[in-house]
Specification:
Blueprint: H1 7-20, H2 44-54, H3 57-91, H4 108-117, H5 127-136, H6 144-172, H7 175-186, H8 189-194, H9 201-221, H10 224-238, H11 247-259, H12 266-279, H13 285-290, H14 304-311, H15 328-342, H16 345-360, H17 364-382, H18 394-425, H19 431-453, H20 459-466, H21 473-484, E1 490-492, H22 498-505, E2 512-514, H23 528-538, E3 543-545, H24 552-561, E4 564-568, E5 575-579, H25 584-595
Parallel strand pairs: 1-2, 1-3
Antiparallel strand pairs: 3-5, 4-5
Helix pairs in contact: 1-18, 2-3, 3-6, 3-7, 4-5, 4-6, 4-22, 5-6, 6-7, 6-9, 6-18, 7-18, 7-19, 9-10, 9-11, 10-12, 11-17, 16-18, 17-18, 18-19
């Protein structure tokens, strides 16, 4: 057949893309603007018309049924994902007391002990975490106090995964992309590794996703009570981890881009300020508990000055923004390496598409909030000079996972609209239209299953990497010292397991346990070990050292130079410091060492 108008050749293709690609500028709160395409309430004229047609309450109930059903599915989805994460984290959970490891566990052991005895943690205090983790010590589960405190991290992590699902569900309006985003974050090695030990980072993510969920619920419903709930949760969030304070300006940007008038309603602002202050109430734990003279109260926040020094992290200011500009490329390379180990490159592409999709759909409120959070957390962590900086990147991984959910949602939207557009463009009727609709549903279902399956790529490797279920090193050290150390001896350690022996187990009260380093001041090779050992030996006490992370060899020359020798215990887990003055064989060994 001859074509009279060449434009007729591309007309079906044009119609196809008009059907597949949604119109820009769709009202915010729609499928891509943060609402739910299956459950969003109809516009005001439509609602009035529906009421006129219904004429009774039963009509309204029929209209609400699909929304309630979708909400129930979302809740069930969140419970299933959270339950799966909890099962996984408990299977790989550390079974007993932890230890200080320069390669990855810095504060876990001390947090275990302080949660058990309600001590005062290092800056910034973490009062909410200590009180919540302490409640877990009363659970009637086997494994002892250390295991129960570890379990707190797993529970917080599982709840955080359910919260990630809720955020992604509210953002995309779809179950499968939300599940994919939540699984992508839950199965990442960084977050998973923190869910199997005693640490503060799973609770930190839980607070963040709770804040974001409430904000997205406010945008969907426009009910002020959600803003007030956010104010309270934001205060509570600030009592846990100070980096989460970046959520506050990001939330202000989100509200401004959604409905800036809310920022001018002074009554609402006053109520919010009051609830924010109420959320800060857990900070009262620090001075109140300090007044009770608890064990392990190094910072003693019993005065206003010491209290503010603790909660603001005074003493760590020099570590913040500590790198000059010329080192920024190296820090970015470090982050890129960690990001690549966290996510398959495919997911990073999907996340980039998700961010672009939010921009395309003009969901500037969500896009602006998420980008500001990502950049804020990234800049802070890049400039923070600390050994375990990799855990400070976890919130950026959270944002990447949310963007990935948006990208998965974009793919699902395109496939669904394409399936509906083909029969219409080809003018299929009857059986042809039904077949086309069936194929569309199959394509959407297949893509949904695929995107939920994809986060499991590399699952086995990650499992083996983070699995702590057979790690009894801390318990072995405790048993070795308890059985082999001399009576009334001194044991030097840094954040070591003997604090657990001393304050939780209550064994070997005769031992004098000393940590010679200030908070955050440990170095793998340091004369501080020698000075502390000399002081103990002058007191007439036998002296032992627990070197973190197998760093005994790095310090051996320091002891030789001072006239001492390190004699390993038969267990090989700790060392006795021996004065060579009364041991000719050791003196000869030291002299040989000095000549070398």
């Amino acid at each position: 057949m001859l074509v009279r108008n060449p434009a007729d050749l591309v007309k079906p293709l044009t119609l196809f893309f008009e059907k597949v690609l949604p119109a820009k500028g769709r009202k915010e709160g729609s499928a891509s603007g943060g609402g739910d395409p299956e459950t969003d309430a109809p516009s005001a004229p439509t609602r009035r018309l529906s009421r006129e047609r219904a004429g009774n309450a039963s009509g309204r109930r029929r209209r609400l049924a699909p929304e309630r059903g979708a909400a129930l599915l979302a809740v069930l989805g969140g419970l299933l994902l959270g339950g799966f994460a909890l099962w996984l984290y408990v299977r790989t959970l550390a079974p007993t007391v932890l230890y200080y490891d320069p390669a990855g566990m810095y504060d876990s052991l001390m947090l275990q002990v302080k949660a058990a005895v309600l001590g005062i943690p290092n800056p910034t205090g973490y009062p909410t975490y200590i009180m919540l983790a302490h409640l877990f010590t009363y659970l009637p589960v086997e494994g002892g106090v250390a295991y129960r405190v570890n379990l707190a991290s797993a529970v917080f992590g599982a709840l955080a995964v359910a919260g990630v699902f809720a955020v992604c569900r509210l953002l995309t309006g779809r179950l499968a992309p939300a599940a994919a985003g939540a699984l992508l974050f839950a199965l990442g090695p960084a977050f998973w590794s923190q869910a199997v030990i005693t640490e503060v980072y799973t609770l930190n993510v839980l607070f963040i996703v709770a804040d974001l969920t409430v904000l997205l619920l406010w945008r969907r419903t426009r009910r002020d009570r959600y803003l007030l709930l956010f104010a309270f949760l934001m205060g509570l969030t600030m009592t846990h981890h100070m980096t989460s304070g970046l959520v506050l300006p990001a939330a202000a940007l989100f509200v401004a881009l959604t409905d800036w008038r809310k920022l001018t309603e002074w009554r609402l602002l006053l109520k919010g300020a009051g609830l924010f202050l109420l959320g800060l109430l857990p900070y009262a734990y620090l001075p109140v508990r300090a007044a009770m003279d608890p064990p392990l109260n190094e910072w003693d926040p019993s005065t206003p000055e010491r209290f503010f020094a603790l909660v603001t992290g005074r003493g760590f200011e020099s570590r913040m923004f500590a790198f000059p500009w010329e080192e920024v490329p190296d820090r970015l390379a470090l982050y890129a390496s960690l990001l690549g180990s966290q996510f398959n490159p495919l997911f990073l592409i999907v996340a980039a598409v998700g961010a672009l999709y939010l921009s395309y759909r003009r969901d500037l409120a969500a896009l602006g909030m998420l980008l500001s959070l990502y950049l804020g957390w990234l800049v802070y962590a890049l400039g923070y000079n600390i050994r375990d900086v990799w855990v400070y990147f976890i919130p950026t991984y959270l944002v990447v996972a949310i963007f990935a959910a948006s990208g998965f949602g974009a793919a699902l939207d395109v496939v669904a609209r394409a399936g509906r557009a083909v029969p219409e463009v080809l003018r299929l009727r009857g059986a042809g239209a039904a077949i086309g609709g069936g194929l569309s549903a199959v394509a959407v279902a297949a893509l949904s299953v695929l995107m939920v399956y994809l986060p499991f790529s590399g699952f086995r490797e990650t499992y083996e990497q983070v699995d702590m279920s057979e790690n009894y090193h801390g318990l072995h050290v405790i048993n070795a010292v308890a059985e082999n150390a001399a009576k009334d001896a001194t044991v030097l350690q840094n954040n070591g397991v003997l604090f657990y022996l001393q304050y939780v187990s209550g064994d070997r009260p005769d031992l004098k346990v000393v940590d010679p380093f200030p908070a955050g001041g440990w170095q793998s090779e340091s004369p501080v070990w020698v000075e502390a050992a000399r002081e103990s030996l002058h007191e007439g006490r036998r002296t032992y050292i627990l070197f973190p992370g197998g760093t005994a060899e790095e310090n051996e020359s320091l002891f030789f130079a001072a006239g001492y020798a390190l004699v390993p215990d038969e267990s090989g887990l700790f060392y006795e410091v021996t004065d060579a003055e009364h041991d000719p064989a050791l003196q000869k060994l030291i002299n040989v060492h000095r000549t070398l």
